[in-house]
Amino acid sequence: MKKIIYKDDKNIRIDQFISNNTSYSRSQASKLISDGMVKKNGSTVSKSSEKIMSNDEIQIAELMPKPNISPIKLNLNVKYEDEDLIILSKDQGIIVHPSDTYKGPTLVSGIIEKYPEISDVGETQRPGIVHRLDKETSGLMVIAKNPKSYQDLKLKFKNRKVTKEYVAIVNGPIKNKGIIEAPIGRHPINKIKRALVETGKDAYTSYEKIDENNNISMIKVNILTGRTHQIRVHLSSIGCPVVGDNLYSNSKNKVHRLFLHSIRIKFNHPSNNKDIEIQDNIPKEFLDLIKLGEING
Fold first, then answer.
1. Which of 89, 127, 200, 258 has its CA 20 to 30 A from that of 35?
2. Strand pairing partners for 81?
3. Which residues does the annotation mark as catalytic?
4. Which DSSP category does 294 fall into?
5. For residue 111, is it within any domain?
6. 255 and 177 share a domain?
7. SS3 track for 186-219
């Protein structure tokens, strides 16, 4: 039985509240209610349209089994933490959450080992996760610690209220600065890849060169949108793929990682609405590569 206290002043429908604060869809919430599996302040709820008020306690029986996510001890590189959220720096090579095709160790496994209370926050297969990074990308990620911050942060990312800055090393000559606006959608042949597609979703990327050596450059990248593989697709489209990107580059040089790192994130805190800004360090291997000025492999 899951218990949630409603803390908002606005009265809303109970099915909407359940959908907003759990992994259940609106239709699943309605089924729970019709099956008598939802209580408000100890009394069984009979209608999905029933309104709830501030400080109402909602009890929800489990409709589906909990996800099979085994806690695993990971060395989480936490950069900031309070009662509402965690900001950590993800290592390159780790998948954020399990999926239908991958059930092995993930970042979520490490998070629920250290913070078991996050297991019930957000979606079933990805508790606490309000945005994601590719497996190959390292850097800053925000994790919600409670349902209220989860909903707030999800909306901020969806409504483009979060500043997301990356550092990357790219192949080929690149302008000192530039903007790439081109829609991104699924690749017509390769299901794993994304591509520039006229019918795709809008995507906006800006970049600025901060260092260069021979035929590689270190750039700072900002994205307004957050499409899958956005930075990688956009940079590849102008002939400057990210070093180590075996999916979007034809380079025969093989390096041990993708040189893309989420380095800065800024947003309004879900509780006090004050700006919170966290800056990570440029990974040493990025600095070593740009100093060397060539890719060995």
1. 127
2. 86
3. 134
4. S
5. yes
6. yes
7. ECCCCCCCEEECCCCECCEEEEEEEEEECCEEEE
